[in-house]
Amino acid sequence: MVAASILSADFGYLARQCREVLDAGADLLHVDVMDGHFVPNLSMGPAVCEAVRRACPEATIDVHLMVTDPSAFVAPFAAAGADHVTFHAEVVPDPRPLMAAIRHAGMSAGVAINPDTPVDRLGPAIEEADMLLVMSVHPGFSGQAFIPGVLEKVRTLRPRLRPSQRLEIDGGVHRQSAAACVAAGVDVLVTASALFGSKDYAAEIVALRGARSTGVALAR
Ligand code: DX5
Ligand code: ZN
After folding, report:
1. What residue's CA is closest to ligand 1, atom 4?
2. In this predicted model, what pLDDT tens digit does every residue of 185-214 receive, in sequence order?
3. Which of 55, 119, 125, 157 has its CA 20 to 30 A from that of 199?
4. Domain-located, residue 215
5. Is 170 a catalytic residue?
6. Domain CATH code at residue 201
7. Is residue 219 domain-resident?
8. 218 found inside a domain
9. Mutation test residue for ligand 1: of 137, 138, 188, 191, the one with most atoms within 8 Å of CB
10. Ligand 1 atom 10: the closest Cα is on which residue?
């Protein structure tokens, strides 16, 4: 699947841009939430998610919380129409209570690790998360270069996951790095600058997807 990160959309035309990437074949809209603390940038919050939901009622909205206190944002994003919430393993001692809270709020739950964080930090999330997210850049900004060393973590995780668990990669995904990601076992590719910076969204999505697609949607 291809997840279009709206961080690189033109915010002045956000509804139109979301509609365009969905019509071009994006499977998910990826909403990057930054608090200026866990990462050195501010981005968007529940109000933007709610606007995206209103503009695209049928979209699957994949929220990526790059925040120090993700528990504070579960209810607001559920109310804003998110389908899925991923938080970072680095900010919780045990991912299970937060995964439970996300599901209780009617969403699926994901857990992310930064490029320097080992796979073991995911703990029970490896067995229990609906999605695992391997960051392939240091989070905070779009348009950074892909860190190929993280593919080793993808190769470690893939055989440990059940077929229903998704493995997502985020950061620096472009036509060249996408093939290596898919070969390593990724099934959800997040793309911001490569997609929104392209002239032909549909052609870019076809190129990113390559020959393989799981065709499996995130559970609501
Ligand atoms: C990075 C964000 C990513 C980012 C990806 O902090 O989590 O989702 O938007 O941007 P590109 O695809 O440009 O690397
Ligand atoms: Zn992201």
Report:
1. 142
2. 999 999 999 999 999 999 999 999 984 544
3. 55
4. no
5. yes
6. 3.20.20.70
7. no
8. no
9. 137
10. 142
